[in-house]
Amino acid sequence: MKKVKRLFLVLAAVALTACNSNDDGVEAGIEIPGITITDDVDCCSAEEALQVYKFLQTVKIVPELSTEIDGKYNVFAYTRNGSFHNGYNEIYFVATKKATGNYIKNFELTNITPVMHMVKMDKYHSTPTGPAAESFDNGILAVKRSWVSFLMNTSEAGSWTLSYDALVLGKEGKVEKKDIVVNALPDGQAWLKSFKVGDDNYFLSLVNPSDWKTGTNTIKAYISKKSDPITTPYALATETFTVEIDPRMPDMGNHTSPDNTPLVKQQDGSYQGTINLTMTGLWRIHLTVKDAKGNVVAGGEEELSSLYWDVTL
Which of the chain's termini has less CB crowding within 10 Å, N or C? Predict the structure, then answer.
């Protein structure tokens, strides 16, 4: 807890400086209280440190997944609200030098491994995960991102642990089998579904539908394949699919909406399309999954597909 409190003090000090900065950047030579800005190429400049600070105001720390490495570095983990839920969750990581508080630009987070213990059966399994954590399109090198899509929530039937490996400036560290709580989604939300092709099991993880608004939205998902052994994280499926969508409002006579486009595979391995949600309420997004040859392999019944996500705006 001391490490976490120290981080908050540092961020608060940065915040005081941020209030005196304009949106276009930081004046040369500015000093940030609590952080010693030097010419150390491994660390952020004053402007980059403020970018990290601003980003960290949008997420919350997960203390149990934060760690110290070699007595010199800290690695901190974050999610949107400091907790986890069924389905897709983004995880963010920041590394700092303990001596200066500076954020480190180049570090690695790999082998993110969630495992559930099914208590009654005394068996273990993993769940879909993203690749090694990496910088993303916000352009802040000192923040790395990956994701985990939890198949089940924590309950009397089972509990979750999460592990990962870290490499910070040549020093190795890890978080190993830390207990985490995965909460159930509220009623009217179901963001993770599975389908089977032959002997293979696949999982459809819907990305951040809580960000959607009425009107046209980008709909994004990942398709993962169950691993063997099942305690190994379920990686992205190498096969190519197309996911057709048919959004309906079951509480409003199952009316649909116009101008929706299928989810197709992108270079980063995600699937993206567009969805038009014309009003607030419960939307049941019926899915038809086709293989690379256009054959229906899941969902796609003549009436309403039995394979669907639920999203409530």
Answer: N
